[in-house]
From TrEMBL:
Domain of life of the native organism: Eukaryota
UniProt protein name: GDP-Man:Man(3)GlcNAc(2)-PP-Dol alpha-1,2-mannosyltransferase
Annotated catalysed reactions: an alpha-D-Man-(1->3)-[alpha-D-Man-(1->6)]-beta-D-Man-(1->4)-beta-D-GlcNAc-(1->4)-alpha-D-GlcNAc-diphospho-di-trans,poly-cis-dolichol + 2 GDP-alpha-D-mannose = an alpha-D-Man-(1->2)-alpha-D-Man-(1->2)-alpha-D-Man-(1->3)-[alpha-D-Man-(1->6)]-beta-D-Man-(1->4)-beta-D-GlcNAc-(1->4)-alpha-D-GlcNAc-diphospho-di-trans,poly-cis-dolichol + 2 GDP + 2 H(+)
InterPro entries linked: ALG11, ALG11_N, Glyco_trans_1
The keyword Signal is assigned to this record: yes
Secretion signal, residue range per the UniProt entry: 1-22
Gene3D superfamilies xref list: Glycogen Phosphorylase B
Endoplasmic reticulum recorded as keyword: yes
Compartment(s): Endoplasmic reticulum membrane
GO cellular component: endoplasmic reticulum membrane
Domain Glycosyl transferase family: 259-440
Free-text function comment from the UniProt entry: GDP-Man:Man(3)GlcNAc(2)-PP-Dol alpha-1,2-mannosyltransferase that operates in the biosynthetic pathway of dolichol-linked oligosaccharides, the glycan precursors employed in protein asparagine (N)-glycosylation. The assembly of dolichol-linked oligosaccharides begins on the cytosolic side of the endoplasmic reticulum membrane and finishes in its lumen. The sequential addition of sugars to dolichol pyrophosphate produces dolichol-linked oligosaccharides containing fourteen sugars, including two GlcNAcs, nine mannoses and three glucoses.
């Protein structure tokens, strides 16, 4: 026993001795996945390479089949992000297989989290940096590097592993996708699950407490992290969106309205039930009826564009099914002729649709963010988004101290119809003012803003040595 403890202490001392000052590690086991999280990673490293060129950057990654050059090339091709190759290295992890969800049909959350801890141990064993940033959400990497390695650690959280909402659901015994019927109905199982969740939340909180700096990707995540980690010092750093492409769009919708008497609405998003295309069709129906009464010379058209990026086959099938459903519904309402389907169209076509759209409509309830809402505003359409989630908390917001509206929020059929009537009731100049303000406001989501906010937040773990 004594020997065991001694051995552990020696290992610990060795780990700490090997800590390399002047290095910053990013724990991002799937760094070559090419998704939104990776865009954040590369943008963050690019910013830091510029700001702190004397540090050396290291990414802990499980992509053993890709070379450094290949990974950097993908970052360039996929996101247009150019990194300084002499100042970045990759530490390849062998145990990434352990964190894959399909290994754990039961107790996935705890198993994956523990596996993340083991993966972090492997990472620490291979390289101990002065500063470690968890950019993928493996909570146990924080105590691993902090307590065992003695690094300073920061976390960028996209999504809380467990939330107070999830615990509440089990407490109230409601059946949902992650709370099965049998559990909701059984007393004992519910109590056990509640204990499991509470214990997990406790571990998650302890891990969160280890972070010297916490960044979150939006207000929704901020609220959850603040309550589950019980810390009030997290900073919101919005992920960088490519707003410039949309800002460059020339608007022609007003001309179409004047010359052809057509009100064009656009809806962007994958065709999934929670996006609530049905509500859009109902609103279109009501607007058409209203126009018939009040402005018989004006027509309305809704373009439904969806699944244009990374359209994967599986999704496409799903979309087509949903599409049939919605077409039926559109004809049932007698508005099938007023609906244009632009599914899986090329990007340029999507941008062209945007330029001719007066109003961009978004109907998903409680979306965590809503990149399509940012894009709609940047494109110069008048945004009409659901009054909940990200659109309400982060996006459709006037700039501080300004009363100028940047768009509309609505929560039900009547409110949507009312908002559209309002928009059509404005003069062109009034609408232009909303457009201009909206295009200015989305600057919050640009790469420049990301750079600024990230630098401000991460400085906390850097300046102590500088
Ligand atoms: C934060 O990340 C989560 C998970 O990827 C995502 O659902 C959400 O939209 C993101 N929020 C922002 C503001 O991008």
């Amino acid at each position: 026993m004594l020997y065991m403890i001694l051995l552990l202490l020696v290992i610990l001392a060795l780990l700490r001795l090997r800590r390399k000052s002047g290095t910053i590690g990013f724990f991002h086991p799937y760094c070559n996945a090419g998704g939104g999280g990776e865009r954040v990673l590369w943008c963050a490293i690019r910013t830091m390479q510029k700001k702190w060129p004397n540090y050396h950057y290291v990414v802990f990654s499980g992509d053993r089949d890709a070379s450094k050059e290949e990974i950097l090339m993908k970052a360039r091709q996929r996101f247009g992000i150019e990194l300084e190759p002499n100042n970045i290295d990759f530490v390849k992890l062998r145990l990434r297989r352990l964190v894959e969800a399909d290994l754990y049909p039961r107790f996935t959350m705890i198993c994956q989290t523990l596996a993340g801890g083991i993966l972090a141990l492997e990472a620490l064993w291979k390289f101990n940096p002065e500063i470690m940033i968890d950019s993928m959400g493996y909570p146990l990497s924080l105590p691993t590097f902090k307590l065992l390695g003695g690094s300073r650690v920061a976390a960028y959280v996209h999504y809380p592993t467990i939330s107070v909402d999830m615990i509440d659901l089990v407490e109230r015994r409601e059946a949902t996708y992650n709370n099965k019927d049998i559990i909701a109905q059984s007393n004992i199982l519910s109590i056990l699950k509640l204990h499991y969740y509470r214990a997990f939340a406790f571990i998650y909180r302890l891990a969160g407490k280890c972070a010297d700096a916490v960044m979150v990707n939006g207000s929704w995540t901020l609220n959850h992290i603040s309550s589950i980690w019980r810390r009030s010092d997290a900073s919101v750093v919005f992920p960088p969106c490519d707003v410039s492409t949309f800002l460059a769009i020339q608007q022609t919708a007003e001309d179409s309205l004047e010359s052809s008497k057509i009100v064009k609405l656009i809806s962007i998003g994958q065709i999934r039930p929670e996006k609530d295309h049905k509500l859009q069709l109902q609103v279109l129906h009501d607007i058409i009826k209203w126009l018939q009464e009040k402005r018989p010379d004006t027509r309305a058209q809704l373009t439904i564009a969806g699944g244009c990026r990374n359209a994967e086959d599986k999704q496409r099938v799903q979309q087509l099914q949903a599409r049939l459903y919605s077409i039926d519904y559109a004809s049932e309402l007698g508005i099938a002729d007023n609906v244009k389907w632009s599914l899986n169209v090329p990007y340029e076509e999507l941008l062209a649709e945007f330029s001719d759209s007066l109003i961009s409509i978004h109907t998903m309830w409680n979306e965590h963010f809503g990149i399509s809402v940012v894009e709609g505003m940047a494109a110069g359409a008048i945004m009409l988004a659901h009054d909940s989630g990200g659109p309400q908390m982060d996006i459709v917001l006037s700039e501080k101290g300004s009363k100028q509206s940047v768009g509309y929020l609505a929560a039900n059929r009547e409110e949507y119809v009312h908002a559209i009537r309002n928009i059509l009731g404005h003069t062109r100049q009034e609408r232009d003012r909303i457009r201009a303000a909206a295009r200015k406001a989305v600057g919050r989501f640009s790469e420049e803003q990301f750079d600024k906010k990230w630098t401000e937040a991460i400085r906390k773990v850097i300046d102590r040595t500088a």
